[in-house]
């Protein structure tokens, strides 16, 4: 009787062992597929966000203007009605940093006669103001010519 009980216990452990082995094989084969599917879903489920463009400092804005922006108006993005007419720029060797001087303008009119050093030149919030750009020599010369013709 003991022998039959022993045979039953052995056969049960063999079937349980075989059952565990088959489950382990299923887990091993299915685990990479299950792990691969979430990783492939992440890029498709998250919309690709465009990179935010880095704002420019005053020197980076001025470098694309003629004569490094001398005579042009620039302002910080959060300023309302205030701008600087650039009169002088002193560049450092790297070409992206430096010092700048300008005349303050409020609502398009000069607020000061003498240029002063502009603070915050390296902060990344500067913009070019196109409607207050410097006047061309042709427009200043055309006004006296009109007066001469009228006289």
UniProtKB/TrEMBL annotation:
Residues 34-45 have a biased composition (Low complexity). Pfam families: MRP-S34. Residues 34-55 are annotated as: Disordered. InterPro entries: Ribosomal_mS34 (IPR032053). It comes from the Eukaryota. GO terms for molecular function: structural constituent of ribosome. GO terms for cellular component: mitochondrion. This is Mitochondrial 28S ribosomal protein S34. It comes from Brassica campestris (Field mustard).
């Amino acid at each position: 009787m003991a022998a039959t009980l022993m045979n039953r216990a052995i056969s049960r452990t063999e079937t349980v062992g075989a059952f565990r082995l088959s489950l382990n094989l299923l887990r091993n084969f299915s685990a990479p597929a299950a792990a691969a599917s979430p990783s492939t879903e992440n890029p498709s489920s998250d919309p690709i966000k465009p990179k935010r463009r880095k704002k420019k400092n005053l020197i980076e804005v001025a470098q694309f203007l003629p004569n490094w922006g001398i005579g042009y108006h620039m302002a910080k993005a959060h300023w309302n009605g205030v701008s600087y007419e650039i009169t002088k720029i002193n560049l450092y060797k790297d070409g992206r940093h430096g010092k700048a001087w300008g005349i303050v303008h409020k609502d398009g009119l000069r607020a000061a006669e003498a240029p002063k050093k502009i603070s915050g030149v390296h902060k990344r919030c500067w913009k070019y103001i196109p409607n207050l750009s410097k006047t061309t020599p042709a427009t200043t010369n055309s006004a006296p010519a009109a007066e001469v013709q009228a006289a």
